[in-house]
């Protein structure tokens, strides 16, 4: 898979390193000469250019990319890069970094963004996840279809604790993606039993989040009336 990353700062280089380790082809783009540190990520391609300029993106052959990641520290730049990648080059997957949570509402399909990653929101979500059991925590927002990646740690009093995944009547437009149990990552097959303390990761429509939280957090005595 070919991935172009706009922004060769610490965030961009870190993403590039991870992708290269997983066998992907990576191009790092930055307009600041001081950001071009080939020795830090020698396996990547490097391009000294302004990712907001069509001529630069032509040089980067963006049309050959499977994914574009707008990872600069400037939200305006990330929006422009996302829009150009999607509308001018038809890149299938565009991921954008949100630096200021106040701008998060802009990072949607209208600007070509498929996945918006807000570092401040993610950090606060992880803090919430660490201290809350039974509360639904939103980790990531997907622009297409108004869906989110959400997490909930199953409380002992949950009505579904001890129930097989296949026996739970999940809300519409929700999908259980992964069960994290201690150090194990489990595929949620229909026979897998849900246990108190499991971290459950879902992709869910925003309109279904409250219903999902109610299903997972409800006490047994409440569920039976």
TrEMBL record:
Domain RCK C-terminal: 137-218
Superkingdom classification of source: Bacteria
Gene3D superfamilies (alphabetical): NAD(P)-binding Rossmann-like Domain, Regulator of K+ conductance, C-terminal domain
Name of protein: Trk system potassium uptake protein TrkA
Keyword Ion transport: yes
PROSITE patterns documented for this protein: RCK_C, RCK_N
Location of the RCK N-terminal domain: 1-117
Keywords: Ion transport, NAD, Potassium, Potassium transport, Transport
Lineage, uppermost ranks: Bacteria, Bacillati, Actinomycetota, Actinomycetes, Kitasatosporales
């Amino acid at each position: 898979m070919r991935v172009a990353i706009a922004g060769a700062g610490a965030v961009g280089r870190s993403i590039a390193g991870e992708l290269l380790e997983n066998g992907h082809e990576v191009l790092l783009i930055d307009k600041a000469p001081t950001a071009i540190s080939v020795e830090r990520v020698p396996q990547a391609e490097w391009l000294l250019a302004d990712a907001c300029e069509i001529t630069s993106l032509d040089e980067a052959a963006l049309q050959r990319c499977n994914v574009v990641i707008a990872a600069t520290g400037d939200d305006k730049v990330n929006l422009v890069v996302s829009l150009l990648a999607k509308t001018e080059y038809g890149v299938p997957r565009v991921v954008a970094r949100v630096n200021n949570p106040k701008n998060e509402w802009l990072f949607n399909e209208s600007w070509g963004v498929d996945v918006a990653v807000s570092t401040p929101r993610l950090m606060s979500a992880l803090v919430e996840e660490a201290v809350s059991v039974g509360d639904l925590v939103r980790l990531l927002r997907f622009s297409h279809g108004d869906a989110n990646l959400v997490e909930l740690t199953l409380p002992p009093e949950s009505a579904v604790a001890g129930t097989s995944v296949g026996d739970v009547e999940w809300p519409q437009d929700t999908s259980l993606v992964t069960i994290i149990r201690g150090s194990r990552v489990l595929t949620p097959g229909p026979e897998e039993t849900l246990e108190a303390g499991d971290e459950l990761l879902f992709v869910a429509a925003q309109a279904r989040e409250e219903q999902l939280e109610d299903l997972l957090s409800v006490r047994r005595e409440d569920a039976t009336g």
